[in-house]
Amino acid sequence: MLSDQQLLRIPGPTPIPPSVQRAMSQPMIGHRGQETKELLKSIKPKLKPIFGTEQDVAIITGSGTAGLEAAVVNTVTPGDEVLVIATGAFGERFVKIADAYQIKTHRYDVEWGEAVTPGAIKEYLTKYPAIKAVFATFCETSTGVLNPVQELAKVVHSHSDALFIVDGVSCIGGVECKMDEWGIDLLVTGSQKAMMLPAGLTFIAASDRAWKTIEQNEQPRFYLGLKKYRDNLEKDSTPFTPALSLLLGLEQVLTLMNEEGLEQIHERHRLMMEMTRAAFRALDIPLLTSDIAASPTVTAIKPADFEAEALRRVLKEEFGLAVAGGQQHMKGEIFRIGHMGYCSPADVLQTISIVEISLRKIGKDIELGKGTQAAQEIYLG
Amino acid sequence: MLSDQQLLRIPGPTPIPPSVQRAMSQPMIGHRGQETKELLKSIKPKLKPIFGTEQDVAIITGSGTAGLEAAVVNTVTPGDEVLVIATGAFGERFVKIADAYQIKTHRYDVEWGEAVTPGAIKEYLTKYPAIKAVFATFCETSTGVLNPVQELAKVVHSHSDALFIVDGVSCIGGVECKMDEWGIDLLVTGSQKAMMLPAGLTFIAASDRAWKTIEQNEQPRFYLGLKKYRDNLEKDSTPFTPALSLLLGLEQVLTLMNEEGLEQIHERHRLMMEMTRAAFRALDIPLLTSDIAASPTVTAIKPADFEAEALRRVLKEEFGLAVAGGQQHMKGEIFRIGHMGYCSPADVLQTISIVEISLRKIGKDIELGKGTQAAQEIYLG
């Protein structure tokens, strides 16, 4: 194998664009100086359209989980009732965080690989009128499901006064999101997925309604107190030392995203999803999710007659290509291909053509080139 | 198109491995200090097997042409007769250099796309016994031809006392070379091809016979005087300021090459050539060279019924994929795909699948996936 070649097709972290890598290699600057002020001033307006909000987007130095925890500790207090819609491993993370804070958690489980049906949530909200917040996962990384957050928001708001809080870690930047218009009260994402950065930053925006709750909320918190971030951001500053190299990279990511155009980026992600799905369909290998539930950022494949782990091994050892396995009870049952952020249709074609070879290597009798061809046809439209 | 993605598939420069890029980003060190001495000491023995020689390989800061000029000005003087075997644009470069120094040049032209026949050279040498040096191109970058230098060396040595001087710029590192065993008297290569570095270094080794000529040669020269490089290299030094970041990168390139293994590297290049050729054959698109004359590092394609330049334009604009056009009279007639250095079979598959899409985009009616499939079959053997 060619030394030093790593093809990273897991659902985050994703490869870093060369110009972003260069931006992150700039010499350190003081985080209380004028240069960092200018940096934050430049970044601030450019994050808003990615979230689809007029609100400032707070930048917390931490991983996505820190952002999810911030969403919890700023909005609810022990004994409060919340509903967590768990469609996979990352939905469960909300449950664990809420449990850690003695929040009374109603857990609505959806079978892994399926999206939540907004109607079901309606019943829940009617039955438990004390629910103060509904937590949902936009893209469930563990299954490649994109939940219908726009419809969920509508249901939540028409049947309760609960805040609608969304984990958008593995899709924001890669899919359309209209936080304000749809009625998302709190939206969280991370830096290492469609945002094309290494992990280390989490982004969070809140609606006016959510800010009211946050301001009144008395849950003890310090580092994750959102008000601090908002008040500092107003002065183009951060409350604590920021991961400065990531901010330098973020500035360049936003330049690249602006160059390509948000709509074009969303279209590219949708195209990569369709190419990937068409390829596996052509090879007669089952997909975990239905078309309607599929995320433009990650695709889970559920082999019927070969070992997912055997395939992953060949891909890694023979080509340096990393795809993800299944999590929890899906371990060994599925494998997941990330196609988000710094990933192109050309990369998807490369992945598929390598998967085809590797399938043959593990003894699965497929027609070479058939998946590639199907993906090419989708590209040509 | 995904911003910032460049797929570089021209026959040099080639992409730089990430670890080499990192090595080149190290802080500068003094080129007369102990650290550079250690660096050269470590590099020196590792270059030899790549050339297939027990001689030290001189490292000159300059492009490949500087190496070719060094080959001329160290071995012949005005009025000397030489034979240049010109199989393409880079064979002609030897002619131009020799002309600049008033060397009496016999030029043996071979049709572009064909390799030289050693038998023809035999006749030449018998007819012109005064010929002091024979210049040949190992891989002719402009056509993707690999000339039979082993056989040429045999013919030169059995029919003359001439030095056999070889331009190996676009293949050394990617193909087997046994300089000593085959009888190459002077071998030159550059850094930006199969050596996986940016341009800026040229490497040159000379046989004992060649060194005798070099020592006696009175052609005026300064920077390109090979004796200076040899004498300094013996003391792990360079006669002039070296391109130090490239030396730091070279050290890492040699580590990577050692990790993969020279034989495996040659096998990878042969495989990439065969995959590329099989793909275009399957698509019924003519190759410029015959199998026997084909180079493992670059493939020239000669379309019969579409515009090479139109295809190149779509590849670049739609996918950021750069392939080379034709040079001189081949301009517009051919396009050339580089598959050398930091390039893997996975990259070849990506290139082919993109070429297939782009062919359809310019209106050429091909069966999608057919070329990819042929390349996959070659990979699986």
TrEMBL record, chains A, B:
The keyword Cell cycle is assigned to this record: no
Domain of life: Bacteria
Binding-site positions, substrate: 336
Aminotransferase class V domain mapped to chain residues: 28-328
Residue ranges the record marks as coiled coil: none
PANTHER family per record: ALANINE--GLYOXYLATE AMINOTRANSFERASE (PTHR21152:SF40), AMINOTRANSFERASE CLASS V (PTHR21152)
Membrane-crossing residue ranges in chain numbering: none
Region (Disordered): 1-22
Residue numbers bearing the N6-(pyridoxal phosphate)lysine modification: 193
Keywords: Aminotransferase, Pyridoxal phosphate, Transferase
Pfam families associated with the record: Aminotran_5
Family membership noted in the UniProt record: Belongs to the class-V pyridoxal-phosphate-dependent aminotransferase family.
Protein name in UniProt: Aspartate aminotransferase
Gene3D superfamilies referenced in this protein's UniProt entry, alphabetically: Aspartate Aminotransferase, domain 1 (3.90.1150.10), Type I PLP-dependent aspartate aminotransferase-like (Major domain) (3.40.640.10)
InterPro entries per UniProt: Aminotrans_V_dom, Aminotrans_V_PyrdxlP_BS, PyrdxlP-dep_Trfase, PyrdxlP-dep_Trfase_major, PyrdxlP-dep_Trfase_small, SP_NH2Trfase/AEP_transaminase
